[in-house]
Amino acid sequence: MAGKSWIGLGTNREGMALRINRAGAAAEWGAAARSGLPGSLGAALQRCMREAERRFEALGNQGCRQWWGTPRSLGDADLGVWAGYWLMGVNGPAPGRFERAFEGWCGGYGHPFVRTVNLFWLFEYHRAGFPRFHWTGVQREWHRQRRAREQFPTLVRSGRFLLNGRTTRRASQTQIRAWADEFHPDPGPWPQYYRRQKQYFFENLARYRQAKEFWAACPEVHRAFIRCARFSNRRPESHPDYIVVFRQGGRNAWSSFVEVKSPRESLRPSQRRFFPELVREASQSVLLVRIGENGASPRFYRFTPNGSLLPLSTPILCDDGASPSSYACDNLARRISARV
């Protein structure tokens, strides 16, 4: 913290990272000490957190999206073999059973869809392309992790491992093992490690391909999505779950952001603020759908600029303008039962 003029103190109501002036917090603590009030600098900082938000400056939520609409195109360059590292990007929460039911409903009716977090992830981190998988890159990373774990005790004993700015050469063997498990966990045997990393890579590759295919197949959403990019610096739950292109009469009729909830789940406070903001400030269509685990009888509501929810009057139909075919219904039921 030395040398910094500010202190990071979590997030505010909008999910933005906050900072407070270090000198101001120290001055408040000094005034309290001179007046004889008990407390510490930490307590003074906590009091500052409870004050009005005008005392803070927004840093940006580093755990959320940082893409602001440029560049606006996607490339497909050969990035070489994946080195086995963590693939950069905010994944967001995994789809739950109601999200999977909604995906099955969209697939049964022929509506193209993509998870919003995947589209942000694509533009922010993988707009140039995606690496290729080969076992040699994974094996090099496995050897590197094993070597770092084996050399860690020597690093500690030689004083080259610093914890909070202090040397750790006098640490016990038990403490060294605990630090090794924390900073250099055992990658495990090669077959299990390879299988785990291969599954991880291809799960992310499927995300990449699905988001890119949606972007290429639905050009009508490009302008709307780029227009809302400046609202991307939010916590993940403050973004609607999906972008859906609803088809009517054999063509793409209209698109919308869609937030999926169970029949009894309520909106979070941040969602009640940000979803109307997308309607009001970015001219977006934002829907709320309440759907059961079986994907039957979803109820749609539209957000108004002032935050009200109105039942959707426009019928959302499948391609032929009627009920889905029996084949689509059977296929939908099979996919939902297989995923849940």
What features would you describe in this structure?
With 340 residues, the chain is an alpha+beta fold. The protein folds into 3 domains: 6-58, no CATH class; 97-127 and 199-339, no CATH class; 135-195, no CATH class. Helix content is 41%, strand content 15%. The protein is built from 10 helices and 11 strands. Strand 5 and strand 6 form a beta hairpin. Helix 1 (22-34) crosses helix 2 and helix 3 (97-109) runs antiparallel to helix 10 (326-339). The longest helix is centred in the middle third of the chain and has 28 residues, at 190-217. The protein is elongated, with a radius of gyration of 25 Å. The protein starts with 5 loop residues before the first strand and ends with a helix. Residues 1-22, 52-64 and 317-340 have low confidence and may be disordered.
Topology:
Blueprint lengths: L5 E6 L5 E5 H13 L6 H9 L7 E2 L38 H13 L3 E3 H10 L9 H23 L4 E2 L2 E2 L5 H11 L6 H28 L4 H6 L14 E7 L2 E11 L7 H13 L4 E5 L8 E5 L5 E3 L14 H14 L1
Parallel strand pairs: 8-9
Antiparallel strand pairs: 1-2, 2-3, 4-7, 5-6, 7-8, 9-10, 10-11
Helix pairs in contact: 1-2, 3-10, 5-6, 5-7
The main β sheet shows up as: 6 strands, mixed
Q: Roughly what fraction of the amino acids lie in strands?
A: 15-25%
Global shape = elongated
Calculate Rg over CA atoms.
25 Å
Mean pLDDT: 76
Distance between the termini: 47 Å
Instruction: Give the H and E element order.
Output: EEHHEHEHHEEHHHEEHEEEH
Strand order of the largest sheet: 4-7-8-9-10-11
Total number of beta strands? 11
| Low-confidence sequence ranges | 1-22, 52-64, 317-340
Structural class: alpha+beta
Tally of individual helices: 10
Number of domains: 3
Helix residue percentage: 40-55%
